[in-house]
Amino acid sequence: MSARCWKTWASKKITEAEDGAHALAELQDRSNIFDLIVTDYNMPNIDGKELTEHIRQGSEQPTVPILMITSEQNEQHLAAIQRAGVSAVVKIGRASC
Question: What φ, ψ does residue 91 adopt, rounded to 5°?
Fold first, then answer.
């Protein structure tokens, strides 16, 4: 889902990252405080599961809600995402925006 879609729904600042590594860098910047993280499972460099693990185990915001929106269908991958600590998973067929 594109940032354009989120910006039409959100009333606060949106921080967009082009991949999991960039998202992790944004999280490590202590000037950024997030109320919610929305991510995908399938991302380059660091996938959504790895990002979730970094957030839960080594970030300044280990309890921030993480919403994963994904088209991933592999049940083992989805179970691993849940074990990593994601707050909620929304399975989609394809992006609607």
Answer: -90, 130
Please tell me the pTM assigned to this model.
Answer: 0.81
39-77 pLDDT per residue, tens? 999 899 999 999 999 999 988 999 999 999 888 888 998
Chain centroid to Cα 76, Å, comes to 18
Backbone angles phi, psi at 66, to 5 degrees: -120, 120
- Cα–Cα distance measured from residue 14 to residue 6, given in angstroms and rounded to the nearest whole number: 8
- Indicate the SS3 state at residue 10: coil
Are the C-beta atoms of residues 95 and 38 closer than 8 Å to each other?
no
Pair 62, 55: CB distance under 8 Å: yes
CA distance 20 to 47: 6
Amino acid, res. 54: H
Order of strands across the sheet with 37-39? 37-39, 66-70, 88-91
